[in-house]
Each structure stands twice: as C-alpha cells, then as structure tokens.
Amino acid sequence: MRFIKMHGIGNDYVYVDCFHESMPADPSALARAVSDRHFGIGSDGLILVCRSEVADARMRMFNADGSESEMCGNGIRCVAKLVHDHGLSSNNPLRIETGRGVLTLRLEVEAGKVARVEVDMGEPILESERIPTTLPGPRVIDQPLPLALDGTTYGLDPRLTCVSMGNPHVVLYCRDVSRVPLEQVGPLLENAACFPRRINVHFVEVRSPDEVVMRTWERGSGITLACGTGACAVCVAGVLSGRTRRQLLAHLPGGDLHLHWAEQNNRVFMTGPATEVFQGEWPD
Q1: Choosing from 162, 174, 227, 235, which is the catalytic residue?
Q2: What is the CATH number of domain 2-118+272-279?
Q3: What is the DSSP letter of 125?
Q4: CB count in 10 Å sphere of residue 275
Q5: Which helix (H) or strand (E) holds 280?
Q6: Does residue 60 register a pLDDT over 80?
C-alpha cells in the first residue's frame, strides 16, 4: 500500500490515496499499526482520501488508537494539498466531504504546490446535548470545572467552555500553558463522565485579545503538536467568555494558525500551512 506522510504544523498523519489504492479492510487496525512511533511509520493517526459523490474528495480520519473521528482541521488542509498536488482535482476552491459535512477550502498555491489553505470550518455547535456533554445548561460557558484539579502551579482558572466543531472540545484557561501536566490532566478530562463521547482538551494562555498560546490533549491520540478544530474552538470560546476577539492568532507547539469567527455568517475560518514529508510503501 502506497502512503504519503504529511503534517499540518506538526499534527502528522499517514495519508492513503484511495482513488488509486484499495480501501483498507480494517482501517482501525491499520491506524494503530502505522501510528506507532517505534514499530510503525509514526503519526497521530491515519487519513483516507476517498472518492465522493458530493464533493471533490471524501476524508475519513482515524486516531492513533483506531477510533474514527468526525473531523481534523490540520488533516483536512493536508487532504487539500494531496488532492491538488497529486492531480486528483484542479478545483480551487476545493470541496471535501467529512463527518462534519462538506467543507470548502481555498488554496494558496506557490510554484504549483499548495503552501497554505483557508478552511471554512462551518458554524460552531454550542448546544450541550449536541457537543455532547451532560454538564448543566443549554450551553457550557465558563462553568465550574467538574473535577478536582490542582492547578496552582500553572494558574488554572477552574472554569471551562465547551464547543463542537463537528468534534467535541473543552477549553480551559491558565497563566502558563508550558507548566500544564497534560499527560496527567488530559486523560482525566478526556474520559470524564460528563463527556459521553470523550472530548479534546485544550489549555490556553491569553497574551492579548488577539493572541493566545495553547496546548492540546487529543481524544484518541494524546498530546499532539497542533489541533486545527481545537484552535477554532479556542477562538469561539474566547469570544463567548469575553477573553479574546473574533480574529485570533493561535500559537501551538507545532506552529501558528489564524482564526476568524465571522460575525456576519457565524462561520469559523482557519488558515494554516500543509506539508508533505515523504512517500513510502506499507507492506500488506
């Protein structure tokens, strides 16, 4: 099976062009095998680029633990690069079918290759039951943290905001994200009983109303260098809680993303790079 290793600001996946390769018989098992950073290729998961009846291509995304997720913001930028650079479609903008629905992507092309992509991520989902979370209220904005976490060393604000961008996110604020013990608090929040489908966890340090630093624990993958849907959720959470503005620069461990929650149409736009690392062949 031919594959392409790609990343969006360090959020790396193994991509399979299922226009030309056979669909894997067991994508979940394949995701676990290729994601292993010691015995496999090494990645945050597996993304299949398939034919679509309603768009230029369809994206299926599997986390490193084999679970299938609805959407990946950094991953979809790389899907757009693969589709364009490998000649699957010359359209610009592109339309990609995901578990979130069909999304529109505008490509910034340099020397015939995609360098950056703006993704229309759609409208955020804020209703508690649709995120989903069992926390009280029609929306979860700056609600008390339901777990006992000792955040004194990193200045944790013990309130959380929940947003879905087609996949679920919880956002917490603190004074120093570099000191957050993600490997400890990430799994606790991801698997908390109030999140019936688990959740992606983000800690955010606000530098100004236009700029934040964030770190992420991803559902099914653990600590990652970036999360595109999570950065969108951080943009929305900042506006809802009065901490940041609608246009936001987010610094993630792997690089920067530009976010805009447009007031006129309620849609979130994410812009960032997409990078191809290498190609290879995985034994059947």
Answers
A1: 227
A2: 3.10.310.10
A3: B
A4: 17
A5: strand 275-281
A6: yes
Question: What residue spans define the domains of the chain?
Answer: 2-118+272-279, 128-270
| Contact present, 195 and 188 (Cβ < 8 Å) | no
Same fold, 2-118+272-279 and 128-270: yes
Q: What is the pLDDT of residue 218?
A: 95
pTM, 2 dp: 0.93
**From 72, 194, 232, 235, active-site residue:** 72
- What is the C-alpha to C-alpha distance for residues 78 and 71, in angstroms, rounded to an integer? 13
Average pLDDT over every residue of 13-31: 97
Backbone angles phi and psi of 97, in degrees to 5: -80, 130
Q: Which one-letter amino acid corresponds to residue 93?
A: P
CB 135 within 8 A of CB 110: no
Structure tokens at 258: 């530009």
Q: For 15-19, 149-153, 175-179, which range has the lowest pLDDT when averaged over its residues?
A: 149-153
Superfamily of domain 128-270, CATH level 4: Diaminopimelate Epimerase; Chain A, domain 1 (3.10.310.10)
Active site residue 227: yes
d(CA 203, CA 222): 14
Residue 277 CA to residue 284 CA, distance in Å, equals 22
| Whole-number pLDDT of residue 124 | 98
> What would the pLDDT profile of 234-281 be if each residue is shown by its tens digit?
999 999 999 999 999 999 999 999 999 999 999 999 999 999 999 999
Mark 40-67 as b/e (b = at least 16 C-beta within 10 Å).
Answer: bbebbbbbbbeeeeebbbbbbbbbbebb
Q: Is 78 part of the annotated catalytic residue set?
A: no
